[in-house]
Design brief:
- The model has no long low-confidence stretch (mean pLDDT 97).
- The protein starts with a strand and ends with a strand.
- It has 290 residues and is an alpha/beta fold.
Length: 290
C-alpha cells in the first residue's frame, strides 16, 4: 500500500530504499535476544529477515495532498551525498526516488512545502541536488520548513566539526533564503501542524493531519521498529537524548493507542500505515493492509 487517505487528505509514500539493513542488537542496544525471541513469530519475515537477522527499514518520504498544497515530509537520502560509513547511501546515482515521485503523479515542481521532522541524513538528503558542482534546492517552488532549535543545534555541531550531510543538504537551503524557521508546535494550516516529540534529536517533531473527524500522524524517528511498541523504553543508537526519547515514545504510544488515528510510521516496513494498540502494560502494532 503506497497511498492512504485521512478524510480528503491524500497521503503517499515515496520509497527510496527498503531492505534488511540494521542488526537489532546494534541499532537497539538494550534489546536482548531473550527480549526479542518471543516476538519473532510476528516480526519475521516482514520486520526482521530470518536469514540475515537484520531489521528491515523503509527509507521514505510522505507526501500530503490537501487539495490546496502538496507537502513533502522528510526527503530521504539523496544522490551524490557522502556517507562512506554506509555504502548503500554513499554517492548514490539511482533514479528510484524520482521514479517513485513520478509514480505518485508528482514532479519536483509540484511540491509547495518541504517539512523536515528533524535534520538527520536520511531525512534531508533530497533537500538538495547537485547541479554544475553546486548544491541547489531539489524542489524549486517549495518553501522549506525546519525547526529553528534543531537547525541551531546542527549548525553549531557542524561548526565544531564539519558534517558532510549538513554541508550538502542543510546549509545550502539556509543560504537560499527559501527557509522558514519554526517552533516545534508550528501550524501550517488547520489541516497540518507539528507535534513536539523531542529526544531522538533536540527538537524532533512529528506531523499531525486532520480533515473532519479523521486524523493521522507521521511519526518521524520517535519510533523506528514495531518492537519498540512492546518495549517503549529501549532507545535507538542514534537517539541524542536517550532518556527523553524513551519518555516521548511512551507518551506518544499512550496518546494514540486504541484510537482511529492513522499512524504513518516513517521507518516501519511496508505498508508502513497502521495503528497502535494497547496490550497489557505494553503496546502492539497492527498494519493497515491494502
Amino acid at each position: 500500500m503506497l497511498t492512504n487517505h485521512i478524510g480528503d487528505i491524500r497521503v503517499d509514500r515515496i520509497i527510496e530504499q527498503e531492505f534488511p539493513m540494521f542488526d537489532p542488537a546494534e541499532f537497539l542496544p538494550q534489546l536482548t535476544k531473550e527480549m526479542l525471541d518471543p516476538h519473532r513469530s510476528w516480526m519475521e519475515p516482514k520486520c526482521i529477515d530470518p536469514v540475515s537477522g537484520l531489521m528491515t527499514f523503509c527509507m521514505q518520504s510522505y507526501v500530503i495532498r490537501t487539495g490546496t498544497h502538496n507537502i513533502l515530509i522528510d526527503t530521504c537520502i539523496g544522490n551524490h551525498k557522502n556517507h562512506p560509513a554506509r555504502p548503500s547511501w554513499h554517492q548514490k546515482t539511482d533514479s528510484t526516488y524520482m521514479n517513485a515521485l513520478k509514480a505518485a503523479g508528482l514532479t519536483v515542481n509540484d511540491i509547495d512545502f518541504v517539512m523536515c521532522t528533524h535534520l538527520h541524513p536520511d531525512h534531508v538528503g533530497w533537500n538538495t541536488q547537485l547541479e554544475n558542482g553546486q548544491w541547489v534546492p531539489t524542489f524549486p517552488n517549495a518553501q522549506y520548513i525546519f525547526s529553528e532549535k534543531e537547525l541551531a543545534y546542527w549548525e553549531k555541531t557542524n561548526a565544531d566539526k564539519e558534517i558532510p550531510y549538513v554541508v550538502e543538504s542543510v546549509l545550502p537551503i539556509v543560504r537560499t533564503g527559501r527557509l522558514t524557521k519554526v517552533t516545534h508546535d508550528y501550524q501550517l494550516n488547520d489541516m497540518i501542524w507539528c507535534e513536539p516529540t523531542p529526544g531522538h534529536t533536540p527538537d524532533h517533531m512529528s506531523i499531525c493531519m486532520k480533515h473532519g473527524h479523521h486524523t493521522g500522524v507521521i511519526t518521524g524517528d520517535l519510533i523506528h521498529s514495531p518492537i519498540q511498541c512492546v518495549y517503549p523504553h529501549i532507545h535507538a543508537r542514534p537517539d541524542v537524548d536517550k532518556p527523553l526519547a524513551s519518555k516521548t515514545r511512551q507518551a506518544y504510544l499512550e496518546k494514540y493507542a486504541d484510537t482511529d488515528t492513522l499512524i504513518c510510521a516513517t521507518h516501519f516496513p511496508s505498508p508502513s500505515f497502521g495503528h497502535f494498540h494497547s496490550e497489557g502494560d505494553s503496546f502492539r502494532w497492527r498494519y493497515v493492509e491494502g
